[in-house]
Amino acid sequence: MKTKKDKLYSFDHTRKRLAERYGIEIQSIDYTELCSRINKKKDVKFVSEEKQKKDIQQIYDITFRGATVRVVWSMANRYIKTVLPI
Hints:
With 86 residues, the chain is of the alpha+beta class. Helix content is 33%, strand content 36%. It has helices spanning 7-22, 28-39, and strands spanning 44-51, 56-64, 67-74, 79-84. The longest helix has 16 residues, at 7-22. The N and C termini lie far apart (33 Å).
């Protein structure tokens, strides 16, 4: 069975990658705050953009809990898909 990659899946994936790659633990309220900051382009740095089949994914650097975190933002879905190592 194929995994449904919705917002809940993306939150869980982002939470795991933040812990793995940056040692940062988050809750859903933190994820919502990060998504809001990127959506409003508030205190974020645009890095690059890549066209996908049905989406455009943008990469941003965002300062969170004293660390610069690199995130992948889905333009179609309007939320963070994952976190990359810097």
